Amino acid sequence: MATLLLVTGCATIAPAPQTAPTPMREEGEAAARVLAFQRGMQTLGAAELARERRRLSADRGAWSKMQLALLALHPRSLNLLRARALLDSVLAAPDTEAQSLHDFARLLLEQVNERLRLEALNERQAQQLERGTSQLEQASAQVEELRSRADALQRKLDALAQIERDLSAPSPQPPTSPPPAGPAGSTPPEDRTPLR
Question: Max CA-CA distance within the chain?
Answer without folding.
Answer: 196
